[in-house]
Amino acid sequence: MPDNMKSENKKTIIMKRTLAVLLLVLVLIASIDFMNRFLCIPMTSNQATVINMHHETADSIDVLLLGSSATYSGFASAYAYELYGFTSYPYALAGGTCTMWKPALQDALRTQDPELVVVDAFTGGYDPEEIKHRCNQAYTVMTHTHFSKEKIASARELSSSIDGTNTLSYIIPFLRYHNRVPSNLRKLSDRIELERFGASPLKGIQNISSARKLRKPDESGFSDETLPLDPETERIIRDFMDYCKSRDIKVLFVKYPSVLSRKHPEELLVNFRANRILEIADEYDFSTLDLQKRFYEIGLDEKKDFYNHGHTNVRGQKKITAFLGDHIQNTLHIAPSELNDDLKASWDESITYYQAYCDLNEELMQDGKKKELWDSPDLVRKLRDRIGK
Amino acid sequence: MALTSLPFALFTLVTGIIYFALPKKQYQWVVLLIASSFFYVYNSFQYTAFILVTIITIYLAANRMAAISAETKAEVKARKAEWSREQKKAFKEASQKKKRSILAWTLILNFGILFLLKYFNFLSGSISAILGGSPENAPHIHLLLPLGISFYTFIATGYLIDVYRETVEPEKNIFRFALFVSFFPQIIQGPISQFGKLQDQLISPHRLEWINFKQGIINIFWGLFKKLVIADCAWRGIKMYYENGGINGTPDFKGYGGTMVLFITLLYALQLYADFSGGIDISRGICRILGIELEVNFRQPYFSRSISEYWRRWHITLGAWMKNYVFYPIALSDLSKRISTSIARSSFGQTAAGKHVSKVFTTAMASFIVFLCIGIWHGANSKYIGFGVWNGTIIMLSAMLGPVYARSRDALHINSDAAWWKLFQMFRTFIIVLVGYVFDIADNFTNAIQMMKLMITDQNKGIFIRQLHTLGLHKTDYAIIMLASMILLYVSIRLEKTHLDTPGELLEKRSGLIQWLALLALILMVLVLGSYGPAYDPAEFIYMQF
User: Fold this and answer.
1) Phi (first) and psi of residue B166, to 5 degrees
2) What domains can you pick out in chain A, each with its CATH number?
3) Is the pLDDT of residue B136 over 70?
4) B527 vs A32: CB contact, 8 Å cut-off?
């Protein structure tokens, strides 16, 4: 074979091999991307909260609530809209701590421009060891955050604050959750459905249908006593406050009410640390509201309004929403949202759904059926049937 | 920097890029030396002095011995006419004595370091216990083991003995010798390479070849599959078993049933093989890409039909080292010959059995000593000595009772080529291997015996099913282990039938599309099913501890 043909053959072979390697890499990236989106993170209510938040129409949420289960079990966006006319969304994850405040806010700010951010101070008062080890919530938020400089910065920040995590795994959650793929395969259709469902009329609602008769809360739960924060926790909190200040974001730090007693001394300590967070918020000139101290003013009944000592059921939720909504509107002067016809129709619809949600909760409570009801396509369908749409 | 970690992958990638991009290919070995030095210092900074002592002393000793040999030859040649035969012989013997003395002192120094770091605490505790004291109060050395000390000591001393025997030329360049001893893909857990087979490859220039690249990548991912998908998943169950106190005879003993103990032993057999051979596959894959062929260390060991065959298939390079430097010197020593002769001359030696024993006794004894050494090499614990004694005894008895087995087989009219007989032999050998593993799993010799007793006397399916949940493995984990083991078994059978060494070589015979799909499937299986990530506490390679 002549030399020029030989070299041509060689070139073709090199070209073919390079293409094959590139194709293999592309298929791998596509497979991992698919698994990252649909198969890695376990299908939980937290996952739904974040995805549903992203489905909200851009620039349509005026009040954003950050926190944990106390936030979504204590505040109902649809009910607040019904009473006060402002739109809101509880970007709150079960077990969430102060480490997720900033990444969650950054994530929300990509599409929303809230007039007020309400932060649950209790989530910063957890035991420092818990804060250092709770990483699932941060992973959930980071999984859905788009790649950006801010995301890398958040990933670095989170990996230094949360033990046993690393920067790369926040950017590629597959590194952490890859072994969930086999067990999540059977939930693939749920996951795809949630992705395709669009904005939910339930607005991130979540609660448990139960009313536990609790003992009267201790006086110590209403005290102003403070406990110093762990230096790392305080650093995270101050960093969040600096971030809000630098962007001129209006923030309200709240403590959601719970039935505190000496039976749960660790909760009392969390409360004292949360008091310290309110003090720090004062330093920064942020608004604060201690709903814990307003327990009776809100009208809460420890025998009817809680499903456990730390969380209100729909009955308590309505009371807190009414009280907090009033504060937001009348003290912080958040006016009713100005919505176009479509948005208005969808928020009006959410009022009907919330009413159906409350009715379902009440029925289950009367039947003694304790059930977790969170914002999922399944629940929406069920309520739609009840409403008769 | 574990072999399966991202930093190691990046380190290897950077080394590979520099290695192949270097314009002057004759200096590629310098890249490997710098990389190996960096790797060693990074992983075992505080113990670098130990490997340096080994490199320097063995380099000097080897070159001194070679110089003595050269001087002797020159002197003998120069005085060829002048000296009588006896004078030449005496001069040669004197030179040999000098060489032997250098060899002995260098070996004492290097094995002394190994002994001191690895066995001193065990020996001092044992002596204290024998003298009625407490092992805890015996003098102890508080040191961790330098990375790969057993491997590099064996690699370097093997070379020294080869130079003494004049089967290899000594390396004149100390830096090249340092590369041979510290070569990063093999320092963690072997294989124990021979100088004659590796050194030329290390210093020769290499270009990136497509076939090497492809085979290397397949080998690396096959190794990762074994390690991350099988070994580490199985390890989670074994670890839980340890943590639950399943092997302790202490009062808080949780009481695992015999079936569970047997299951754990089987899981351990799977994990150990997947872990060790997986690590070797990764090392061989990296070397293959660099154009260097490391020795094969595993050849489907669980398909062995006898325990001696098993040891020719498991950790082959350690077996080869032991054969070359322990077995032959013992079997061919004057003492062995004298023992053989005295057996043959005794009245027992005149019988048929005696004749056979006199022939095989020295090799059987040498095998026993080799396995005792292998046991001790694994660690300073009575359980490892038990492990060595068990394997040595089986091999010794196999050699001694060979004719009895043959006669029994004939009497039972067993066709030794029949498939069922071969399968039976494999099964029998596997059981013997499992007994050896019990010594490995147990805390000490006494617990090993307790575990074996439990396996025989306490079988309960119901308890086993219940206890299966206490291992912390989910249904998915068991399914993954099963699926991956099936793939491993299939590939092993194919390799056995085709007499090939790697799955890459198996795939080479298939179409390009099948090769790419297989590689894609392998990578995805590692990525999806493997145990890794920030929340995962990775299990170190078991043989890293040796």
Assistant:
1) 60, 35
2) 41-387 (3.40.50.1110)
3) no
4) yes
